[in-house]
TrEMBL record, chains A, B, C, D:
Its EC number is 1.2.1.38. Pathway: Amino-acid biosynthesis; L-arginine biosynthesis; N(2)-acetyl-L-ornithine from L-glutamate: step 3/4. InterPro entries: AGPR, AGPR_AS, AGPR_dimerisation_dom, AGPR_type-1, NAD(P)-bd_dom_sf, Semialdehyde_DH_NAD-bd. It comes from the Bacteria. SUPFAM superfamilies: Glyceraldehyde-3-phosphate dehydrogenase-like, C-terminal domain (SSF55347), NAD(P)-binding Rossmann-fold domains (SSF51735). Catalyzes the NADPH-dependent reduction of N-acetyl-5-glutamyl phosphate to yield N-acetyl-L-glutamate 5-semialdehyde. Belongs to the NAGSA dehydrogenase family. Type 1 subfamily. It catalyses: N-acetyl-L-glutamate 5-semialdehyde + phosphate + NADP(+) = N-acetyl-L-glutamyl 5-phosphate + NADPH + H(+). This is N-acetyl-gamma-glutamyl-phosphate reductase. It is an enzyme of class 1 (oxidoreductase).
Length: 360, 360, 360, 360
């Protein structure tokens, strides 16, 4: 386990030197999927991590290189079966499993292991909510891996369990949190979020085939039926101290990665919108309010942990409109997971993470 | 000029036989752009049309085959200069010109020529609106080429002038018209419409380069600043008989064609939503409410004049959500133009138009 | 069965009038796949065809609208089980089945039914070739549906059986046939053909997922192992009267439709290359040699039955380079099938087919 | 200037600690383009570099954040005019300028500055070749930045001038070098390389618009007319010690980044192909021969400096077929530039570079 150096002013690679002889040993369960692959991509450039066991379900026994050919340094690793035995003996275990599988695995890992669940199982605080939306018994809730929410960072320090947020809740909550916190907007917001296809995972479904996806746009989970809806509501309501309703519609677009969320609500409070957002995120390493003439693009955050956002007011309607972009696999999943691990362990929060996108 | 046969029950190609010796002579101004090219693509399969002069601005003198290589039967046509002389002597003139150029050209064409303006110049009824949004003097308004709006078809019969709707107003207005007409929704609606890049035309702008567009999503004209906003408001307010506010945000996605609009508003009236929509479009040849379990995709309407839509109610919020898909170049521009021409001339409304998309 | 009107000079829709009261009744087996869907798309605009039974394997019982939402006029059709009973009583049956399934079905259809096999089963003339490449007993060979090959059209007139060519053999053979026929090139040619994903069908394979395909290029069937290799060799060798070797490599690219083939071989014979190609295709309705300054794009042939090609000579190497573009689903599959049907039945060859692409 | 530590066995971030207090000061001319942007993206994760002046031509005066929004840490930098003054005082200057501009700038920078030219000006050794292909006087040739070629690394050590290879020559030369070196193949090879659009730069050309590019494939520079042809020939001929002819055809495909090259030639020599390739690249950090059952994809090298390749023999034809994938902006341009800088300065060759791609 590493020595905690806190959030020192060390910039660039200075902390790399300090960490170099103390590495966290990490396992990844579900290493053959998109979320697991992205966790590994980030860990490969993390200076304080040693990558241990990699496990899978149906793909156990395969070389990682065949399933994740972009992870060249790990190409010869062979995937083990996901089990308590293979995951034992690590400081940190990332779970990138289908919904409903995390609790059982976590229970076997012991209380000293840091367990970071990229799935949905421990996100919702309300058991009834969980049962309504997922149709199974609630596994309980864990500290929520979105440190940029009000008091979000505190809950993660020293924790042994992290529930990584959903990708849509991440971008929507960060887009609206400052407005909600300052009582700026009414209780009913509308979010339409356009996403690349990797959010749906490596599932073999006809509607996810390249031939179907390219050249097409489609909505799904319309009418408040997408499972990320209660999670967005939970986040915003917690900030507001009252119920915030959210009309949420996800749209699938022909790109592998990226979410662009358009979030709008009537303005009911006072205050300079831009100042409120500037203040809210002034010290955040990953959330960037763009200069006034510039709008976010998902290409600019590809592979990066950054959130790029812009706010404006539709003066005719007195409505707030916030547009925010993330990479659904990075800040939307694996980046948040690594960021949360860093906070939980007392590592520099940005270790292994970047605000530089791969564009064009 | 053709003999009017009205909307007879002739199915298939029966009317083709009747029309075969009476053809409408058509010119297209702006034949080198995307809208002009799509008008030509449709006219090439129109049984009652003879394609006359093709004109352009900077591209005058070029072979059409070099600029529109998909229009093989017209490849050897040479583009003439857009002028009153080259456009004279046609029964119908399609104007696919930059905004602000149509009125001057139309004035020279004489009152007996059917002039169909694919540009914005004659869409807005209110001169002050026009001046606010386009910053130039109002050229007046012409009958609006969206026959599926309440009483929309009547205004087009026999007209010599047509203002072809904007692509976003087409899909948004058709998505919401039945709800507005039946007093179903509140006065403030939110529309987020995701579009392919051809809606921006063949403009040489960095943000429209393939390298910038592919793999990226971006919003533009945010905060009620897109010029299609007043046109949507105009359409819905005319139906309602009162002001309907619209929060409109367009999003650019990596595909050449297609718009998917998500339209939502609080429900305030009574009535079975599905029945209202079924009735509204039961007899429309191009607007299709999908079966209840199916959501629209833009791929399904590629190159077709169809609108595919689906409605639902978010019961938690009592909000209406309508999702509608069109091809922005077909039903969103050139298809509406041809459809309007057909109505204006008394030809079968569907001549030269299809409800069959090119997928996958 | 229609009255044969031959290839008269009737242009436009004239023949539609003649055909209007005599329709060919057509069934499509495999209507839920990409090839079957494209056959239906084309038949929907064919003036002399009535669409009868639509059948499927695993999708039998489903509404076509759910599986092929772009075929709106057929949306309410229900797919029947593929069987001799459901396919009986039609003048023409299109088979769009997995390889190996056609012969058994065809055997049950009777000798008077025109059977058009979009699969590979009856393409190869040599039984040993078939067994080597497909690993099953040879079902025999049928007249080959590529009328633009030397004497190709003759073999199709009046036939009751058609083997529709593979998509890569179509574009490669047409690109090289004139050069081979005139003894222009050496016996070893290299073809690298880049294809969209629909050529792989609606198969649920990880490497065909949108997330995998978009933003990626990959080769497959490298080293002469793709099953279309012997078919290209067969076509070119038949023209040459001697064995022509072909090094063939297919590449998968992120677009749904289209193949662009680059075909090159050392020049060994005499003759003006351009003149040879001009003469070869001067009277072909679907094969277009582009003007000298223009190169083919697949976008220009999207949804069209056209082949666009260009030839040049690398003077430093005295090599011929031909680049040709088709839509793999149209001229590469379903367009060739309909074209062959037209010839077989004595209908106008271009009925239901277009040389107009859907671009951009 | 850094202390040379050679190619020590220090793995991970160990050398970062050594370099941390001695940074190379670097300027980038042409920072607003794709090549310049990619150089900066890589430098931002290079532990031994301090980013100094950023210059541009027409974009001088602009914030970098507006032009390269993915380079968040540099967003507030303002672009200076490209001039000897602004570029003075740096240890290393990267030139990412249009062809023909590098020599004049380099001449003003003094012999002690390491100048790394991402353009073509100093790639060709033969003045007549240069004049034939580029139509201007030859500026001379510089050490060639492809260390993986035979003796390639030696030429770069300690050099003050580097000519960064073209993207197509990089992938083609690495794909064929081992075969040429071992006399395995005949003197005439065929290369067909499919590329993403960023290779064409941020040029405002109609054929590079997203609407034109998406859904389309096209060839260009066909018939041996692409300017990278003589560079490939130069590389292979230098290895062979005799003239190697290359038939080269580039194809444009709808993705922003990535080149997949298919390279084929008749086998004339003896030797185990796989062993030859294995040995050739066994110790190369960036060139990876894949396991026998696996073929390269460009997605796997997105943003990485890796080359993934696979070799096979078409036994029917006794032809070698090599397929290789790179990211044209990384290994194809900016990665090679940084790698060459590292070698020239005696830094660890892999500093700032990765073999991990961003997928899916």
């Amino acid at each position: 386990m590493p020595f905690t150096i806190g959030e020192t002013a060390l910039s660039g690679f200075a902390w790399a030197c300090i960490l170099i002889h103390m590495t966290v040993r990490v396992a990844v369960a579900g290493a053959s999927g998109y979320a697991g692959g992205e966790v590994l991509r980030l860990l490969l450039s993390h200076p304080g991590v040693e990558i241990g066991a990699l496990t899978a379900g149906g793909n156990a026994g395969a070389r990682l290189g065949q399933l994740q050919p972009h992870l060249l340094p790990l190409a010869d690793r062979v995937l083990a079966e996901t089990s308590a035995e293979t995951l034992a003996g690590h400081d940190v275990v990332f779970l990138a499993l289908p919904h409903g599988h995390s609790a059982a695995v976590a229970a076997q890992l012991g209380p000293d292991t840091v367990v970071i669940d990229c799935g949905a199982d421990h996100r919702l605080t309300d058991a009834a909510d969980w049962e309504r939306w997922y149709g199974s018994p609630h596994a309980g809730h864990w500290p929520y891996g979105l440190p940029e929410l009000p008091n979000g960072r505190e809950k993660l320090k020293g924790t042994k369990r992290v529930a990584v947020p959903g990708c849509y809740p991440t971008v929507s909550s960060l887009a609206l949190a400052p407005a909600v916190e300052h009582g700026l907007i009414a209780d009913e917001v509308v979010v339409v979020a356009v996403s690349g296809t990797s959010g749906a995972g490596k599932s073999l479904k006809t509607n996810l085939l390249g031939s179907e996806v390219m050249g097409s746009l489609s909505a799904y989970g319309v009418g408040g039926t997408h499972r990320h809806t209660p999670e967005i509501i939970q986040n915003l309501s917690a900030i507001a101290g009252r119920r915030i309703n959210v009309s949420f519609t996800p749209v699938l677009a022909p790109l592998p990665r990226g979410i662009l969320a358009t979030c709008t609500a009537p303005i009911v409070g006072e205050g300079n919108v831009r100042e409120i957002y500037e203040r809210a995120y002034a010290n955040e390493p990953f959330v960037h309010l763009l200069p006034q003439d510039q709008w976010p693009t998902t290409a600019a955050v590809l592979g990066s942990n950054a959130v790029q956002l812009q706010v404006t007011v539709d003066e005719d309607l007195r409505r707030l409109v916030v547009v925010a972009a993330i990479d659904n696999l990075t800040k939307g999943t694996a980046g948040a997971a690594v960021q949360s691990m860093n906070i939980a362990l007392g590592l520099p929060e940005t270790a292994g993470l970047s605000t530089v996108g791969v564009a064009p």
